[in-house]
Give the backbone structure.
Amino acid sequence: MATLLILEDEPKLARFLLRGLSAEGHQCHHASSISEMSEMIKSVSPDLALIDRMIGTDDSLYSVGMWRKRHPSLLFLMLTALGDTEERIEGLRLGADDYLSKPFDFDELLARIDALLRRLPTKQSCQDYVQYHQLKLEPIKQRVWLHNHELTLTTLEFLLLKFFIEHSETVLSRERILSQVWSTQSDPLTNVVDVYINRLRKKMAEQSSAINSADAPIIETMRGRGYRLIYSQ
């Protein structure tokens, strides 16, 4: 989970980004002007700034260099309709860490954000691994193995699975999951918990099936109570 600051002056796109990235577990903030962005960088201290290059008639790229000097650890991902090679090269030279041309695929945006966030220094942990039967997690690097084969998970899927493993065989209510994984008591998107649990179920089932293993982790639905992680043998 990271703190993201979005500079976007198109309300519809801004709402889409805020909703989608928040659903992935990130803490998101929004600025609609370059001056507002400058103030929010100081107050929010984001890990990554997602920046629309053209804000009205202003080119935000020329502010990136200033922001970079004042906040050297801040990552910058530019979104732009200016997609030619020279424009991208100019952006990278002036301080952007990556470029994504509009229109873009949301999954590609998530992949680029995850790749940039991996550059951030990780916090040290006294526990290298979290394990439940054949499920093994490496919290620092956010890697997961099932039956000694690595699973590919998004950041939020990883956090959700880690929460289940840390409370294995315990019934977890939707409210508790939202509070701990999404950091909220209310569900901002309909059935968001169910959607992500189904994603985990599918990925774990596919891995177990691929190696013909009868041993498999299962996230059970406890009707009216919540969910729990158990191991089926």
